[in-house]
Design brief:
This protein folds into 2 domains: about 70 residues, Outer Surface Protein A, domain 3, CATH 3.90.930.12; about 80 residues, Outer Surface Protein A, domain 3 (Alpha-Beta Complex), CATH 3.90.930. Helix content is about 20%, strand content about 40%.
Length: about 180
């Protein structure tokens, strides 16, 4: 049974929620997000609360209840507070600089990499720390993963792009035997 799906989602005072014909729109201080709701679940909006209701008790519907509740909760948190993801660049000569709506990376390749940021995602760069921020949690995570994929951290020297909270398991290199 879904415990997450049964919890109601609180609507902060700054957010405005519109729900018509299985289409949910949430407007807040930071922006506006919308979502198509699956036909197997329905939303009930009361006084500053959103409850996800299911039409049947089968496994798929109960799973969709939890998923829908999480998506709605992330949308509300995104338009009111926003989300942030931090990446760290490790390696001699590895650096990044912001140019308008793109980030230019020098990651040890023969050429610089021009990474265009998607609409709604902004980046601030401080030496070796990249801070991505936006209101859409899924898009933010996908953008962070795409940047990390440009030069994933390697286990011998730890060079590359990694999440700040990520721990790289280090390996011992070759031992020179005579």
């Amino acid at each position: 049974m879904s415990r997450v799906g049964k919890k109601p989602v609180e609507i902060p005072g700054s957010a405005k929620v519109t729900y018509k014909e299985k289409h949910l729109t949430i407007k807040g201080d930071k922006g506006k997000l919308s979502l198509e709701i699956n036909p197997l679940v329905d939303l009930k909006i009361d006084d500053r609360l959103i409850v996800v209701e299911i039409k049947s008790d089968d496994r798929k519907t109960v799973a969709l209840q939890g998923l829908t509740r999480s998506l709605v909760s992330n949308m509300i948190e995104g338009v009111s507070k926003g989300f942030e993801r931090k990446l760290e660049i490790n390696g001699i000569g590895y650096r990044a600089e912001s140019k308008g709506k793109s980030v230019v990376f020098n990651l040890g390749y023969s050429h610089p990499i021009d990474f265009k940021l998607p609409e709604g995602i902004s980046a601030s760069i401080d030496k070796s720390l990249i801070v991505l921020s936006g209101i859409d949690k899924q898009l933010l995570g996908q953008t962070a993963a795409s940047i990390r994929k440009l030069r994933p951290p390697e286990p011998y020297k730890g060079k590359g792009i990694k999440y700040v909270e990520e721990h790289i398991q280090r390996k011992a290199g070759k031992t020179g035997t005579v």
